[in-house]
Structures are given as C-alpha cells and as structure tokens.
Vesicular-fusion protein SEC18 (Mixia osmundae), 867 residues
Amino acid sequence: MKLARKASPSSGVASLASWLGQTRVRVTSSTPLGSHGLLSECTRPRASHRLTMSWFRSNEGQLPSSTNNGMSNNAGSAGYARTSSASAQAPRGYTAPPPVAPLRPVQRQPVDYASEKSGLTPQTPQGVRSPRGRPGIYAVRECPSQSLPLTNCLATSEQDFPPYTYVKVKDSFVFTTIGSTLEPGCIGPARHQRTWAQLSFAGAGDRVPVELFDVQKQLGPDHLLGSITLELSLKNGTGDFDAEQLESRFRKQFDSVMFTVGQPLVYEFSGVIFQGSVKSLNVMELHGGGRGDSFMGILMAQTECTFLKGDGNFKIKASSKRAAPNAIIQPNFKFEDMGIGGLDAEFSNIFRRAFASRIFPPGLVDKLGIQHVKGILLYGPPGTGKTLMARQIGKMLNSREPKIVNGPEILNKFVGASEENIRKLFADAEKEYKEKGDESGLHIIIFDELDAICKQRGSTGGGTGVGDSVVNQLLSKMDGVDQLNNILLIGMTNRMDMIDEALLRPGRLEVHMEISLPDDKGRLQILKIHTAKIFKNGIMESDVDVNELASLTKNFSGAEIGGLVKSATSFAFNRHVKVGTQAGIGDDIDKLRINRSDFMHALEEVKPAFGVAEEELSAVVQNGIIRYAPHIDAILRDGALYVEQVRKSDRTPLVSVLIHGPPSAGKTALAATIAIASDFPFIKLISSENMIGYSEAQKINYLNKVFTDSYKSKLSVVVVDGIERILDWVPIGPRFSNSVLQALMVLLSKRPPKGHRLLILATTSSTSMLHDMQLYDSFAADIPVPAVDNLDSLIRIVDDVKLFRDQADFKRAVQLLQSARFGEDGRFSIGIKKLLGLVEMARQDPSPADKLVSGLLNTVASIEAMR
C-alpha cells in the first residue's frame, strides 16, 4: 500500500529513517522536498515536495505487527497503523465508522482560483469546498513521529479526516490536519499543540470533541492572510538569519495552514529549529482590496511574513524592502486628531528630521550607515505649545509609555542619587537593546524645563557640582561608549541659551525646533480647536467670526488664546447668575449663548505677554501729535517709510533709527506714534523709568531680554527712549556705564533670526555724546526734531490746544507775542513739551494771555542765562 506523506523540510531521509526503525523505506522524489505530499480536494495544486513511502515485510509485503521498539501498536502509540485484518480494540467511547474502501491516493481535481488579485485558495462557484471528515469524541495520543511537529498540523488518521482539513478541538482551537499512522478515533498533537490546547495523553489520555471547521461559514470570504507577524526564539544555537529567506521558506513550508493569534509553533530553517508564536494577523479583504485585523486565517504564497526576535542569542537581519515590524507610527494616527494648531510646518520638520528614517526598512537604513535621531529640543516663548506637541508626539508613536521628567524633580539631596535617577531613565532601553538590538521598541523620555537641570557646566555656584554631574551623566547616556539606537529624548525650554552646548550637538539633542508665536493662520486653527465644542453644541451666536478674532489676537500664544475663550465664556456665565447672589444660577440657563461682545470684553481683559505695550505708549502720547509745522509731517512720513522698509525689504531685516533733538522737543511722542502706526504685533518701550535701582548686570539682562523677546515675533518694534539716561551718562566727569554701552552697541547691530524683522527707534538729546562714545555709527539713519523756534508755530500750537475761550483774547495774545518780538532775532527756542506746560498753567489764570507771555519771557531768559 502506498501512502503520500508530507515530510519535514530539509530534514532529509535520515531523519525519516530514524523514526521508521526497522521498516525499510523507498523514497521517490518526484518534486523537491519540503511541502505537502498528501493530496486533497480541499487543497490547491502547487509545486511541492512529495515522499512516496511503501511499507512491506521482507517476503509478504504486509505491514509489521509491532513498532521498532517492540511495543504493541495500540491506538495512540508511536508506531504504525495495523492492517484492517489485524485485531485491535478501539478506544472507549469511540463509535467505529462505517466500512470504507481501501485508502488510495487522492486524485487532484481541476481548481479554479478566486481571482488574480487574491488568487490563492481553491474555490468553486459556491466558494470554498465544504469540509469532509468524521466529527466526534477523539482520544488524545502522543504524536506518532518526530517530524510531524515541524508541520504544525494536527496528526490524525486519514480515515477520519483527509489531509489539510480544518478542525476545531474543544470548541476553541482550530488546527490543520495531516495524515499519520494513528488509528481511527485518535488525534496526536505535538507538545506545543498540547500546551496551547491544554491536552494530555497521560494515562488513558484526554477525550475531546473534534468537529469540522467550515472556513466559509465561520470566517466568511476574507480568510486569506495578507500578513502575519511571528516571534521566533532559539534556545540553543546562534547565528544571523536573513528575514527575506526566513519568509520565503516559511511561506512554502506552511502554505494553506491555518494560523491563530497566540498559537505556538515550531519552524525548522537550515537545520535550526525555532520556537515561535503568532503575534498578529491581517486578512485580505477581497472585495475592498485592503487588509483588516483578524485573529485567524489561512497562510498563502503571497502572505507577508514578519519575524520578531524573541529569546536567544541570534539575530534576524532586517529586510531592505519592508518597513520594520514594530512600526514607529500608530497605524490609525491622524494629524488632525492631535489638537495642535498653527504648528503644521514645525511638525513636518520634526517628522522629517526625527522620524522619517525610522519608518523605512531597517535594512535600507543599515546600508546607508546612519543612526536615528536621538533627541529633539523644542524651544520658544511660554504657552506656544511645546509641552502639548511633546505629549502628542508620544501618543503618535507606537512606543512604550513615555517617561516624563518635570525639570528639577530629577535632583536629589543625597550624593550620587541625581545621577542614578538619570541612569534609571535609560535602564529599560539599555536592557531591551542588549536583548533585541535594532528590533527593540522605541523608548521616549520627555524633559520639561530642561534648562533647570542642564545648565552650562561651570556656570552654577556652590561646591557640590551636582548640576555638572547630572549633565555629564546625561551626555554619556545619550551618546557615550555604549550607544543606544532605541531612545528618543524630547527636551523643552524657554531659555535655550542656558543649556550646555555639548547637549545640543548632533548625536544628542540635534534637532532644534523653535515653537514661536502663531501667525494669522495658526491663530485661526487654535481658535477653531478651542471653540469646536461651542459651535458643535450650538452655544455660539452667529455674530461671532473666528476670522475676525484671529486678526485681533496678534502675538497671542496658544495658551493665551485658550485663556481668551475662557474669559469670553465667563462673561456669558455671568449673564445667567441670579441678581443679588454669587452662587445662584438663573432659570434661563438653557439660553446660554456666547456672542461677539463677550469676546470683545475678553480682548480687553486678556493681554498677550509678547504684544504691544499699549499702556506705556499711550501714556507717552496721551496729548496726541500737534502738526504745528511742516517738519512734523515730514518726520512722520519718514518714519512710515522706515516701517515699510522693515516690513517689505528682504535686504534690511534690521533698521535702527536715531531720533535726536533738544530736550522736550517731542522725540519720544513721535517715536511712539511711528511705532503704534506700524501696527506691528510686538512693540516694546525701553526707558530708564523701568530700570530704576538696577545694577549694570541687571540692566544688561533687561535689555537682552527685551531684544530676545522681539526676535520671537515676525515683526517687532523696540523704542529705546533716552539713551543717555540708560547709560547713566552725566557731563560732569564725564561718567557713564561702559558695560551697558557695549551691550547696547551689540544689540543695536545684531540681526534678528531668519524670517524675523526688527525696527529700532532710539531717542537722545545729546548727539555729541553718542559721537564721543562711537554709538552714533550703530544707527542706520537719523531724524532730527527741532524745537519751536518761530512765532507762527507758537500761534498754531496755542490755537490747537484751545487756550482762549473767545477770539478777542486770542488776538490780544498774538499782539502781545508780536510786540515782544518772539522769534525775530533767533533767540526764541522752546521744546513743545515745555510750551504745553506753560499753556496749561496759563489756562488756570484769569488773564491767560498775560500769563502765557510772561511765562514765555521768563523761560527765554532762563535759556539765555544757561547759554
């Protein structure tokens, strides 16, 4: 009698002879070794390996009555099936099947493939052929051969189930059957199959239900595996194994075998036997053309097989054509779900620099000989979304739960404990990298307020040197002797200038991304995020226009926009508080709506930290600008031209203008007017009033902070009022602060970062002093502001401020000024600020004309005396 049998791949004739014992084997190889030899109507034709074996006695050609170990060949023993004439008792409880014809090779039938696209499983017009076999209660016996476990199929008798039939054991575990020498009514699971299904052959052996598994009914049309992920372990042996060769051999060896998530298996490759398990499956969606998650499916020749390294001292060489199995990006990730507005460009740059190399096949990256980016530094003003972006990046990545370090919490009072805390952060990554190498998962460490623990070495006081030791420990862990390629450190800071330079070099925190204030488009996105639920639930009134709000919130950070929305809702809540109470809610709470006026009130309440210093500027020009002479209009026109130069010119991102003139000539008011008219989002006034009591170092830090803040806005204006007062200059001596002078000279000449523009308007009453200090040459242009030095200008100023109630008093004042010959001899010169003070004093007198003229005469006499 001839039986077609599947042999273990690459095991050869010797391994078969070892379990055949005294039986003589005739092996005819009609095709290469290594695939199914048992034919079935349930399987499709394929180029496979076939072993045709015939058992015969030396003279009669009959099957032997005992196995090579001399034991009686009862059902379930590791021997060969008896002939039909041999007497043997059937297992208890087993109902003998009806007599069947002698077993003969199954003839292959013509097969129709489902389609070229899926084209894999034998189909009829009605779908997969109905399974054939004899369900019932079966006795568990030992696997009858040492080679059958390598097939990962369930050994059965061919009289019970044709080879490659899908059966369900204990109503839970699905196996693919394979013919063996077991007697009818028995199954012979291998050790890993018994462990998985909790079966035992000890004693009388378990008796379990075995039923046919109808693939079409149980799984539907989508049951062919598009991809399978397996974890392989190797207890004994070492070596490097190519992932593509492992995949090719696995597909050939286990074609048409059913696999389940969590199922253990054994896999022989080039004489090495791996133990493995199924981690995940994806089935082909034949109608949709995609892939979907599943817990069970049939392997086919086109299935993508991915191998993960488990336990053992071996290495799987990554494929250069397929992405890493442990995908770095969550498969269901969508950028719009991150809840980050105004940072599209920044996120794209971060993805390109830090994550693009991680989504490509590791084999290709290895060919390039590059290392993945290990660190990202996010810096920028407070409230711009640095922490939010780091948190969302952690959610986006398919990695372990990020370890978050909140600044100084890493420090410890005990000696060496701070450095130990740094080592603990990297301990898990180091352990996994030693075990799995490049296949280990990504470990993310997030440092918030990094400048608190990574200051420049040698800059901190004290004799302990803890800060320096922490920095040294972090540097060695990120890019020391033992390099790790499975970590990503994300640091956040407002003060990048304070961080040690060694931490910022490539190989450590090499990606530096500025998270700056959002532009109009970014503010619109942030507003839509913060008001999405309000609009969705119909609580927002129709008069609210988020585009208008985006234009009105210049230089607002993301956090400040969120505060603006909360402030607006507080005004809406306040309308529904019961009158006379602070905790009672009105009965019309269901009519709660947020309207435009709520946002307008909120804009008055919430001010941006990097916006326009409106109060300071308004105090400077509270009386407005009196256009008493043509040169005032010329000054304002020139100032507007400098504003447009900064706004539009690509060649001059920095323009510094010196506005000079005699004291009280209105220089500060003109500079503030030009700054306000520019409509730039950042306007800051620096004056000596803000630095009273400051030391030289404090003044330098203050100046540097204002200019540094100006660089964070795309368009900025800085007004430096009274340079001589800031420099502590006095003509007696002369005396001034050289340190502040040098710092100011550097800041006036320092170009802003790329894409940022800065206009500097400085005022002084002593140009000769600036010439002597060589500070005058630091300005690109200058605008002179003369004092009031003629009678026509004086008359226009008096008329503009409406000093006199009737025209007669005004004419009398003009006659008095003309009779005093003001401005005729060139001696008359007064600052407009001082003149306006005299006018307001004269307004309080019963005879304002006489008081004004007398006041002017006294002022002119004082000026003459000083000369």
About this structure: The longest strand covers residues 272-284. The mean pLDDT is 78. The first helix runs from residue 12 to 20.
